[in-house]
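Exercise 7.
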Amino acid sequence: MIDPIGELLGAGDPALTWAVRHDILDERVDARSLWTLPEVERICRRQRRDGGWAYPGARVRAELRAAEDYAQLATYKQLLVLVSKYRLDRRHPAIGPAAEFLLGRQTGDGDIRGMYGNQYSPNYTADILGLLIEAGYGDDPRVRRGLDWLLEIRQRDGAWALPLRTVGPKPGGFAAVMKLREPIEPDRARPSSHLITGVVLRALAAHPAYRRRRETQDAALVLVSRFFRPDRYADRRSAAYWTKLTFPFRWTDIVSSLDAVGRIGLTAEDKHVREALTWLRDHQRKDGLWSSGYPVTKDPLVDHWVTFAAARAWKRLRLLEPAHQRHVLAAV
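Solution. The predicted structure, written as tokens, is:
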């Protein structure tokens, strides 16, 4: 594996440089140095008084979601960038209102509802909770209640699926299901989905206590056993999605999965992890970067961010030498 650190630092992007120095080189750097960057200020200027963000564009597909649910999606997407790239946390004045906006959609059971109407959404619930944990809300009882709900709604194989998918197609399709007043309970005997499992594990891995739970450890083993296989359900079913890399993480791919299971405690001793690392090594470019699976973007550094995520995953799997040496082991 080619050491990508020099190429990443050479890009000269403040947020990327901070991420490499902090997450990979173990340097003590203050995230607040990023909070006055123009992109952060541009995003925060658009935040509404209720703490959320409006969905871009005035046309809302009302037959699928109400306007407030689109606002939930928009707020999640903005938080994804602010926390993952610019490391905003609860000390920043935008984060508290955004957290209250999103947690205001939490039900008494602990899940965050609205992305799929009244249906359960373990993937969006988990990703929102994971971002809040990274932003400093790990001890918030609402976040813990949400994590407990995620553990309770597992399939019998120990991982997760989208409940409405486990009961087969419904008349009228997805749009009709989203209009139902009550959530569809999962058929727990059905197999889990690696798409959903990978997202849920990111949230559990982000929490120092929940990443050590036996349920989390077992689900990590289920996830890696599915590497490079098609999903069991229709959403992003193709095995090709494993290798469509992106950052910030939103769906499930090889890098996002390695990042999560590395935090949970798996290592390259697991044969499935070794298989994924071998694929990464074989698909690294000569300049040390990996290519994003989503090249149509406004971000000119999309490949650099994907490469940062891959290098951090290697570090979390304990395959990087001490930070001051800045070399990557090739023993995979």
